[in-house]
Design brief:
The protein contains two helices and no strands. It is an all-alpha fold. Helix 1 crosses helix 2.
């Protein structure tokens, strides 16, 4: 297993500590669980990698031939 050291803002560190105490798990367990969950969510929505990379009019109905009649 690899080791990762990160710096957290005070509010994030406090949130992590509170959740660790509340759930009875160590901060390591809590963070690892969240990483695993994020990986599963990513696998279930492979199209999300395309989010935000398409440009064009905000409302496609503004294109000629697609407006109200």
């Amino acid at each position: 297993m690899s080791t990762l050291t990160i710096s957290l803002p005070e509010d994030a560190a406090a949130w992590l500590q509170e959740n660790s105490v509340r759930t009875g798990r160590t901060a390591d367990e809590f963070v690892l669980e969240q990483i695993k969950k994020a990986r599963v969510d990513e696998d279930e929505k492979p199209w999300m990698k395309l989010a935000g990379c398409v440009s064009g009019p905000r409302d496609l109905s503004m294109r000629e031939g697609f407006g109200e009649r």
